[in-house]
Specification:
Length: 196
């Protein structure tokens, strides 16, 4: 199957995830962060994530990266389509659950609430799970060694480094309540699905 169909699907899903992110965060982005633990490494990882999101556009709209193309069966592209759609949905429900507790950087707002309902009932970091789903879907849709894997290459280090700092911040702020919450939930994969 022609890779241009999956390039188009990728673009549509990229626009969709951008809209979900924008609609979900516009009203909260301007709220003041009381405690900011953002480091230079954190900012660097965010910049690299942006690069991982931009490289696919060079692949789709130019022939600069064509030397790194590969072929996959069509079913892999359709699986990537489904995974990316799942990432979009997961990101949307995560932002909805977080509401004003969402911060674009590593920090806490005044009167920050520990969110444990909705998707957070099952996993502590659904936003990272959504990004990792997207990162896994990307090489299934974009059949190019550089553009396809660019987001995965930056998303994994960001997940590995930022989650530790985020959980340390939450333990410092919410103490035993967060420690108990950690016992009941998985980081990015659910431990259980029942409400027990």
């Amino acid at each position: 199957m022609d890779g241009s169909l999956f390039n188009l699907i990728y673009l549509i899903e990229l626009v969709a995830i951008t809209i979900v992110r924008s609609l979900s965060t516009t009203k909260y982005r301007q709220l003041k962060t009381e405690e900011d633990r953002t480091t230079r490494l954190d900012v660097s990882l965010l910049v690299f994530s942006g690069v991982g999101m931009i490289l696919p556009l060079f692949y789709i709209f130019t022939d600069w990266l064509d030397f790194a193309n590969y072929s996959l069966p069509a079913w892999v592209g359709w699986l990537g389509t489904a995974l990316f759609a799942g990432a979009i949905a997961l990101l949307g429900i995560t932002h909805q659950a977080l509401g004003p507790s969402w911060t674009p950087t590593l920090g806490l707002r005044k009167d920050h609430q520990l969110v444990t309902g909705g998707v957070f009932k099952y996993i502590r970091h659904p936003m990272y799970a959504a990004h990792l789903l997207w990162a896994v879907a990307q090489p299934m849709l974009l059949h190019n060694w550089i553009a396809g894997f660019s987001f995965l290459v930056v998303a994994l280090p960001q997940y590995l480094l930022r989650v530790e700092a985020e959980e340390e911040m939450m333990l410092d702020s919410f103490g035993e309540e967060y420690a108990d919450y950690m016992e009941d939930t998985g980081r990015i994969f659910p431990r259980k699905f029942s409400g027990e």
